[in-house]
Amino acid sequence: MAGLALDGSNPDVSLLYDINGLAKSAPTWFDRVMEFVGEYGIMLGMVLVVLWCWWSVRRRGTAEESVSAVAGLVWAPLAAGIALLINIPIRGFVERPRPFKDHSGLDVLVDGKNDFSFVSDHATMAMALGVGLFVAHRKFGIAAIGLALLEGFCRIYMGVHYPTDVIGGFALGTAVALLLAPLAMMLLTPLVGAVSRSPRLGPLVRSRRPRVVASGRDDAVGIPEPRPGSRGGGSDGEKGLAA
């Protein structure tokens, strides 16, 4: 494959050199930023997106919507974990060395990567999280998928993965998150529904503050209901509410 890289006949290796070549012309501080982002930053960003989505759906959704969305949020990290477990035998079967072991001239930003290259764990985990989050909430899911794509670019930029390693990780993460989602949601939704009815754990699924829709506004403010049997009695405010 080293010979193919020199004559450019292997698109996988050629693209590796093109993307990793950006690191050679970039300032040292930028390479350090990309190293942190590719190793830890995007995964941290994924966690923040999941927490933001959880905070949003539990406060704004109805009871049924909150239960369904939180079940999807629980599925997202489970999908990532399952995808990583499936990747263990795949890497052992393919046994593809890291690109810097077969090709010279790469600017490797991270040391100590001595395991096999195909498929990328980071790309697998990031895309499984992104697609799993998309099952729960489309807007947040699209943002997470965007972060997963950036993760894949960073892994190639850092010189630790071939483009096909990343593409394989994207495919594996997507397949696990989507194909197992119906079964996962069938099992998780009743469980999350039971948690939502718990006095102590219920707020993890949905906010306990009452929500009303009045005059086109959605406010988390309780409005007292008229007392049963009241007919015209009471203050003007109570009459207005009864009307």
CATH fold category name of the largest domain: Vanadium-containing Chloroperoxidase, domain 1
Distance between the termini: 80 Å
Query: Given the helix and strand composition, which structural class is it?
Result: mainly alpha
Largest sheet: 2 strands, antiparallel
N-to-C series of helices and strands: HHHHHHHHHEEH
Radius of gyration, rounded? 25 Å
- So how many helices? 10
Strand order of the largest sheet: 1-2
Beta strand count: 2
Which blocks of ≥5 consecutive residues have pLDDT under 50? 1-8, 210-227, 229-243
Average pLDDT level: 80
Coarse shape: elongated
The count of domains is: 2
Gross CATH architecture of the largest domain: Up-down Bundle
CATH domain class of the largest domain: Mainly Alpha
Range of strand content: under 5%
Helix coverage percent? 55-70%
A few lines on this structure:
The protein has helices at residues 2-7, 11-25, 28-60, 63-94, 99-102, 121-136, 138-157, 163-179, 181-196, 236-242; strands at 212-214, 217-219. It is mainly alpha-helical and 243 residues long.
Write the layout of secondary structure elements.
Elements: H1 2-7, H2 11-25, H3 28-60, H4 63-94, H5 99-102, H6 121-136, H7 138-157, H8 163-179, H9 181-196, E1 212-214, E2 217-219, H10 236-242
Antiparallel strand pairs: 1-2
Helix pairs in contact: 3-4, 3-6, 3-7, 4-6, 4-8, 4-9, 6-7, 6-8, 7-8
